[in-house]
Every structure is written in structure tokens, then in C-alpha cells.
Design a protein that fits this description.
This protein is α+β, with helices and mostly antiparallel strands. 25% of the residues lie in helices and 29% in strands. The chain is built from 6 helices and 8 strands, in the order αββαααβββαβαββ. It has an 8-stranded mixed β-sheet with strand order 1-2-3-4-5-6-8-7, with helices on both faces. The longest helix has 16 residues.
Length: 202
Amino acid sequence: MSLDLLDRCEAGQAASSHPGAAGITPQPIGLGACPTLQTARLVLRPHQAGDAEAIAASLSDYAVARMLARVPLPFHVADARDWLATLPRQRGWALAVTREATHVGCVHLELRHGRYHLGYWLNRAVWGQGIGGEAVAAALAAFRIALPEAVVHSGVFADNPASLALQARLGFAVTGCADVYSRARGRMVTHLETRLDPAACA
């Protein structure tokens, strides 16, 4: 699940994320337009206005929303439309994950404070089928072609072992932790920060 794709909470990361922070090199802006990608079972494509109802159906599920930082509950179709309206202003890719033409999730690679951040979520109906790993791996492979030297940052809540295992399989390493407020849970939750270095993809 990782970080909230609508308005990620960056508590504990603000200082280290700033382009001028010591040891941080701002990543180049060069992803270009959001692509369409195909895997064995999925098509990842740019989001469309008609995806709002499917997004709302997925994110109004507490089991999904609790693993994201700032998804409100209840989550309405209007909230989904508001998020979709922000996409043209964002720098990065927001890929709709579709299976047999049905929207089942999202993989987001977004440039923030000079660093690329990965976030993702899936409708609970497709959990446990390897869909998340397939979708995220495809997005990262395309990202790596576009920006082979870029570092990717992400993270998971500490009580989300499935997402942490997914990231570990893809080469992410845990780099720290911070308490992040979860709107769905209404409390602070321990969040593990992760990082994927280009060397891990070689």
C-alpha cells in the first residue's frame, strides 16, 4: 500500500527531502507523459475521468484506507474526482492498474522535493494474487528506462508486512521510521521509510 497517493503525509521526512539538504541530490525531471504498460495480466494506463467511481469504491474500504496516510473515510466519488483533477499539475506518473478493463488500483511515481516517491494501492478483491507486485514491477521497469540513475523512495506502515515483503522482493531497503498520522485510523502509526537504489535494479 505504501504512502497515500492523494496527499501523502511526509512527517519525519521534510528536512531530508528538501533539495538543499545535506547528502540529497535532486533527481532530474524527465519522466514525460504517463505511459501505457502491459503485463501478463494487467494494463497500466493513465487515469481517466471515468475512473472516479472505481477509485472511490476501493478507497472507501477501511482495509485499504487504513494502510494509507491521509485517505479520509468516508471516501466519496467527489474526493476521487478532486484527486483526478490534480494529476495534470503533478510531476510524475499516476498509473491506473486495470485487469480485464476494470480499474483495480493505482501505482504512483511522483517527484516531490527533488525526490521520486512510489505509492500504490489495490482494491481488496485482488489482494493475495500477486497483482501488486506485477503492477509495481512493471511501473518501476518503465521508470528505470526513463531515469536509470534515479533513486526511488517509498515506505509502508509497520503493520503491513505484505507490502513490506513486496518492496523487499523489488530491492527496496528500510532506511528509517517515523510516526505518521493515519486519517482512516484516527491516530499516529509507525511508518517504515524505504529506498530503492539504481544498483539494486542492476
